[in-house]
Design a protein that fits this description.
With 267 residues, the protein is an all-alpha fold. The chain has one domain (6-265). It is built from 10 helices and 2 strands; from the N terminus they run H-H-H-H-H-H-E-E-H-H-H-H. The protein has helices at residues 6-30, 42-61, 69-90, 100-122, 126-134, 138-155, 188-193, 208-225, 239-246, 248-265, and strands spanning 162-165, 168-171. Strands 1-2 form a two-stranded antiparallel sheet.
Length: 267
């Protein structure tokens, strides 16, 4: 299935607008000092989660269209490093460490490496590999989606030392979260994985766990829905939103500097 699904671009475009508005509110509250109590409410948290869930699910879904997932992942990861460096220099009070671009880049490289290994083990030719990527088995995809969703749910609280699924709760060893030093930046590899060290702070933190499992769920969701791609619901093309969706990485990189300047210029 190689035809572009316009609905994916439209949905990503809508979400990028939602993200820009959310971040503008963040700037108004934490940089400009506006009194916005609602921004720390459950409703605002749901807004934030709807943005990141959508982006991560769609990123996994679109892995099936990526020609060079390892290269693409490396590029996105590099942009994540650049964002970290820029925020450390220009916004040291709210730096970004292990932000969403770092997560997406890492997830793309991990999935890309898995696909390379899968092809080699099964002796697939490049043509067979493309066919397998575009037309995955529906039952395998359903099983993969279920396992990924369960792992995501289980590790959703891993940043805070908890594994939880339904009525099952398991507290992880405190030693996994201690040792980061006064600034919480020691043992950063554990923070990257999901064991957030005491004292660590990032204004945009997405650890590998649990979010890689949501990325995987998006990847397997493609195989579940592929047989329905001829339906009109997958070809909703709202052109302004689709354009934004196709350029979402570029917009993500530029929107915060622009919002920061606008915020500073406000009376």
């Amino acid at each position: 299935m190689k035809k572009r699904l316009a609905t994916i671009d439209t949905l990503r475009g809508f979400t990028i607008i939602s993200m820009v508005l959310y971040h503008f509110c963040w700037d108004l509250k934490y940089i400009k000092g506006f009194d916005m109590e609602w921004y720390v409410s459950a409703g605002a948290h749901f807004w934030q989660q709807s943005i990141c869930w959508t982006f991560i699910l769609l990123a996994g879904f679109c892995m099936h269209f990526a020609r060079s997932p390892l290269r693409n992942g490396a590029i996105v990861f590099l942009f994540g490093v650049i964002v970290t460096c820029i925020t450390e220099i220009f916004l040291p009070e709210a730096p970004v460490h292990f932000g969403v671009l770092t997560l997406l880049g890492s997830s793309m490289m991990l999935m890309g490496a898995y696909l390379k290994i899968y092809d080699k083990i099964n002796g697939l030719t490049p043509a067979q590999s493309r066919e397998h990527k575009y037309k995955p088995d529906k039952n395998v995809s359903a099983f993969g989606f279920m396992i990924s969703a369960l792992l995501f749910a289980l590790t959703k609280g891993i940043n805070y030392g908890v594994l939880k699924l339904a009525f099952i709760k398991f507290d992880l060893p405190a030693s996994l979260y201690q040792g980061g030093g006064a600034d919480g930046m020691g043992r950063s590899y554990l923070t990257y994985l999901g064991f957030m060290q005491d004292g660590f702070y990032s204004s945009d933190y997405f650890s590998l766990m649990p979010w890689f499992f949501l990325f995987m769920a998006g990847y397997f969701l493609y195989g579940i829905l592929r047989s329905y791609f001829k339906l009109q619901i997958f070809h909703i093309n709202v052109k302004p939103l689709s354009w934004l969706g196709r350029h979402s990485l570029f917009i993500y990189l530029l929107h915060q500097p622009v919002l920061y300047v606008i915020t500073l210029l406000l009376p």
